[in-house]
From TrEMBL:
Key words, A-Z: Signal
Alphabetized Gene3D superfamilies for the sequence: 3.10.450.50
Protein name per its UniProtKB record: Nuclear transport factor 2 family protein
Xref: InterPro entries: DUF4440 (IPR027843), NTF2-like_dom_sf (IPR032710)
Span of the signal peptide: 1-20
Domain of life: Bacteria
Domain DUF4440: 31-136
A Pfam family of this chain: DUF4440
Length: 146
C-alpha cells in the first residue's frame, strides 16, 4: 500500500512535462508551419521543404522503411511523383517543452510514374525547437486500409 504514494511521487515530475493544450498562439503557429510544408511538398518547392526540416530528419513510412533527410527530399523531387493538393483531418498538437507532436489523418491522391494512386494514412510529425526555430525531425505514417 505504501508503494502507491511513492509511485505517484515518482511519476509527478514526468506528468508536469506535458502541456495538454498548448497555448492557442503556438498551436496556430505550428499548424500554419505544417500547412506551409504540405503546400511546399505539393509544389515541389525544395527550398521551402528543406527549410522546415532538421538535418537529422528521419521518416518511417507506411511499410516500415526509414528515409533520411536526403532520401526523403529526393523522393519528393522525383519527376515520377505528382501529389495533388490534400487536406489534413483530425489535426492535433501536443507540446512537451521544446518538442511538439503534430498528428492527423490525410487522404492523398496523385500519380506515380503516370499511374494514379490514393492513400489514406494517420501520421505523427515531431517538431523540436532548436535555436529558436521549430524544425521537423521525424515523421511516421501508418496506412489506414480502405
Amino acid at each position: 500500500m505504501k508503494r502507491r504514494p511513492l509511485l505517484a511521487l515518482a511519476l509527478a515530475p514526468a506528468a508536469g512535462l506535458a502541456q495538454a493544450a498548448p497555448d492557442a498562439a503556438l498551436a496556430a503557429r505550428l499548424k500554419a508551419q505544417a500547412d506551409a510544408w504540405d503546400r511546399a511538398i505539393v509544389a515541389k518547392d525544395r527550398a521551402a521543404i528543406e527549410a522546415n526540416m532538421a538535418d537529422d530528419f528521419r521518416q518511417i513510412d507506411g511499410r516500415g522503411n526509414v528515409e533520411t533527410h536526403a532520401s526523403f527530399v529526393a523522393g519528393l523531387m522525383s519527376p515520377d511523383l505528382v501529389i495533388d493538393p490534400y487536406t489534413v483531418e483530425d489535426f492535433d498538437v501536443r507540446l512537451y517543452g521544446d518538442t511538439a507532436l503534430l498528428s492527423g489523418r490525410t487522404r492523398m491522391t496523385g500519380r506515380y510514374q503516370g499511374q494514379p494512386f490514393k492513400s489514406h494514412y494517420r501520421y505523427i510529425d515531431i517538431y523540436v525547437k532548436r535555436g529558436g526555430a521549430w524544425k521537423i525531425v521525424s515523421v511516421q505514417i501508418s496506412r489506414i486500409p480502405d
